[in-house]
């Protein structure tokens, strides 16, 4: 395992003392977004911010996560940023402790780490396989375990895991990624069955289709044509589903859903 980065909040720089302290002594509900990247993760963070949460955005790169935090604040919403490698258990424990102590109770936790790679099985090294599993599955377990321990005494909370096509189908060249996503799905199912009767809503959301991101457009020339015919999944539409699932009444909980554009073959 690579050395874990030290937990640090990146959101307090250049802020007036009274502004910082006022934020830290509020008890506003928090939404923890692990894997708050440039596209889907950022959209999920923005959606929960608009919904009234103080969003705690987490990714390994503390500089990039701060850019997301500032954009959310400029829109008039609350956000904090953390540069954390969530493959390390102590990092995750410190992260959750820090948020609950300074900012407020975590009411929603989203695990959105990707780690999609493509190698033939003979070219997949042990290091690659292990790293993908640590990022896309093991760190999800660490987050889920830690936030569940805080939510259970309160008898409420939502834990959401982002899945992919590889969560249900191991395609050629995706042995490492599919193995990790299969594992994450199993984790979500086990947690849902264990924690649901105790008031915690756990769900797995499968995104089956190309997402409208710069990376897709750079690597797949046909993406532009798909975009015209609404054949790419928009990050903001994915994010809206996460908020909807969180607000579901206990009488009608979804524990797994799949989302894809209308032209996707499945």
From TrEMBL:
It comes from the Eukaryota. Pfam families: adh_short. InterPro entries: NAD(P)-bd_dom_sf (IPR036291), SDR_fam (IPR002347). This is Short-chain dehydrogenase.
